[in-house]
Amino acid sequence: MDYNFNEIEPKWQNYWREQHTYRCSNNSDKPHFYVLDMFPYPSGAGLHVGHPLGYIASDIFARYKRLRGFNVLHPMGYDAYGLPAEQYAIQTGQHPAITTEVNIARYREQLDKIGFSFDWEREVRTCDPEYYRWTQWTFIQLFNHYYDTDLDKAMPISHLISKLEKGEVDTNTEKSWADMSEEERQDYLMNFRLAYLADIPVNWCPELGTVLANDEVVNGLSVRGGHPVERKLMRQWSLRITAYAQRLVDGLNDVDWTDSLKEIQRNWIGRSEGASVWFPLASNYKSHAIPGAAEYVGQLNSDPVPSFEIFTTRPDTIFGVTFMVLCPEHEMISQITTPEQKAEVEQYVSWAKNRSERERQSEVKSVSGVFTGAFAVNPLTGEQIPIWVSEYVLAGYGTGAIMAVPAHDSRDFAFARHFNLPIRQVVALDPNDITDPATWTESIDAKTGFAVNSGFVTGMKCKDAMKAVINKIEEMGIGSRTVNFRLRDAIFSRQRYWGEPFPVYYKNNRPYTLPEDCLPLQLPEITDFKPTATGEPPLGHATCWAWNEQTRQVVDNALIDNVHVFPLELSTMPGFAGSSGYYLRYMDPRNNEAYFSKQAVGYWQNVDLYVGGAEHGTGHLIYSRFWNKFLFDLGIAVKQEPFQKLVNQGMIQGRSNFVYRSKSDNTLFISKNIPGRAENTVPIHVDINIVNNDILDIEKFRQWRPEFAEARFELEEGKYVCGWEIEKMSKSMFNVQNPDDLVARYGADTLRLYEMFLGPVEQAKPWDTNGIEGVFRFLKKFWKLAESRTDAPADKPALKILHQTIKKITDDIERFSFNTSVSTFMICVNDLSALGACSSQVLEQLAILMAPFAPHIAEEVYHQLGHDTSVCDAQWPEFDASLLVQDSFKYPVSFNGKMRLTLELPNGISQEEAIAAVKADALAQKWLDGKEPKRVVFVPNKIINIVL
RNA sequence: GCGGAUAUGGCGUAAUUGGUAGCCGCGCUAGACUUAGGAUCUAGUGGCGAGAGCCGUGGGGGUUCGAGUCCCCCUAUCCGCACCA
User: Fold this and answer.
1) Half-sphere exposure in the Cβ direction for A491 (13 Å, CA)
2) Out of A54, A318, A479, A601, which residue is the most buried by the measure of CB atoms under 10 Å away?
3) What is the pTM of this model?
4) Sheet holding A565-567, edge to edge
5) What are the start-end ranges of the H helices in A46-119?
């Protein structure tokens, strides 16, 4: 009988479904293992072959762990909220809930065909009220907590209030806590809540009608759709993720991720150590040089002079400061600008503020700025330095003000050159080598070298000078050692419809959260999804979107009286809200009392293996870690880090095919390698489904499109050879490979094996079906081998092959090296086939080894051997080294196909004699069934390699 | 500019982690079977050479008895961040 995958695969898929083979329990004596995939966003396009790559890898690992006796949690779900569904709704008028449902059904169908071992009873969808109830719940907790820097964890806001009431902390504002009104107190607390409402500059995308998080904007364009993004001041919800910046950096040391991904996160968080220093304004009436620092401090204490806080990573260069620069948004600009400069400064500031992000970024190299007319005082030298405004100083980083050291910062250098400001060298690689900065072509930015021209730190190494300067400014009370982060708070509002509603209503224009037991706050039905250009969200169209505080119900907007009935928040949460904690919900997905039970999280702890794309490095993977750490602080999550080991599957690119149409004749197509083809033709994308191994199926091509019906061809050796190129997988390039087509043609097992065979999981690679036949052939050989089985006990050569395979496959899986596993299986089956009929005993073990990779055929063979339980419940074969090596070995051996022995050799023996002695010994001791070793290599440190 | 990674036959890749480079597969060549083959099987396939042999892991140095693997310097490609003080 032929290998009929079309019959085998549905049969076992049904069997697994009916037997609940992949159902997994939270109560088990077995050790636990949690294997997670990044759940997909169910787009209208369906799955392409890139999606399952990671799923197949994780499925192999999950199945392997199960065969090794672990209780494995391997769930799947859908990240179902998001912009595309809503965009589609706007275009077609279809409700996103419906299109999402349709898309999910299609995804499920595609996933089922590939034979994954997901426990579908644990499926979650972020748009399901029973799921987003806990997203909303977490939001309320974030709102009701603040970050206590002393305890270094999130604490209830009530804890802060009681500290304020007892006067244990100072408000650092004009009014004390006791003197504040209720509104003032609420406004004050908003500065501490981990979810807070504030007027902040946001990435506003007019085209999408929403604000976007930093990771959703690239080069001033939205990631979704590529629309321009502007900076705009808006009242928005944000998450105070910056409070966790240090812990997010530290936690990276405790997880088993690739260095490159850790580095991406470290860069994104952007921790830098330095100092913050206060530079006072030189008052106009004392515009003479201030004689000395000591005197200046006295003045600062008695008579508060307006001053600027700056952040620098190079306090050692403070003696080289020759000007200051403020960002155009700096609040003190209008206050300090002199009347003469006023017009010019105002003009510059309004010009700078109205530029889009894209304009700013595209002109990074150009220098612009304006002098305010005001001067500040360098607190260490007493010198007066001019204060400038320039957009090269960013409002969002540090304090929005810098001390400029043109000699040792390339940006300051460019600015000084452009505006002819003085440049003073204060660092030199060699203290005796001081040159005139006027002759320089670039600044000396390196942190190595010695301080020069630098008062009391002159002659010190840069590092020592940094410490000395910081100590000095701390002593003077004008600054301190500071750590700054590039990471910014995550903007959490989206002016969209298809997302989680905020459990928030507004009383007296201030936000209040809904009671927890009123959750979920369900997304209302509306018919008009369009956002407005002014930023009014689609939920503004909802007619029943008000909160009655007394009845604790959502009621009609008409009832709003601002006494008992209040308006609800109109924004919705961003995409990352639902995906930030989904891995925890899988542990206990049907719990109606809690996010997940203590028992469940106590059992599963966290994700042992997470597989997904590195493109989430600065988005989901940061937000999730933050979310988890917050829940950890609440005592709900039990591990600081959510994802212990993380494997990034490489992106699968498309491999496009081209036909070459003659420039002079529109119906003539010339094969790729015909001389002169390049000059006389234009390449045209052709659907990869009508090309096989770069050979065009001419008939299918003629049928493909009406304009090719009359196509004529200039062939080479009777074939039309297409060109190819690696491009992004995209519909418009006709290079999208749908997994369903391959499953229909070769079966799921072949697809699974082939996706692994393509190369290392982590590596980016083009999709290319050229080798799939080889894998298919292998499965057919395996099928034939299974049919040829005998009940005779296994002989030694067969056992040897089997145990070599057990060893190799086990090692490969542990190393996540699945491409080599497939090769190993091929060798194994070839070798066994060469021996003739295969013993059932060997075949059974081989079926178990193959079960993680090709579960359908493995299940079929396993059952044919007389089992009536699933191969999933079998036990992983134990490697028996004694089958490979003779017992009579008298030397320590490590076996891997080659052997390495350590020998004590007598003095004076030559290499040749030693080798001959080992060979003779091998023969005498029958190490290798009486055969002489293939190769013996003598190495000076008494190690000998023996190759079988 | 900063950071990370990669580089091996015509192609995808492998190499027990310092031990005969090129396993396995694709493709290609020859042959067998076949009415036929997008089926199956056998043999061959890094380069040069008739041959023994010589040369070969992006380039150049180095360490070592021995280097694809370790160290230094280049080059190319990919990815992330980018006026982050």
Assistant:
1) 25
2) A318
3) 0.91
4) A553-555, A546-548, A565-567
5) 50-67, 83-92, 96-114
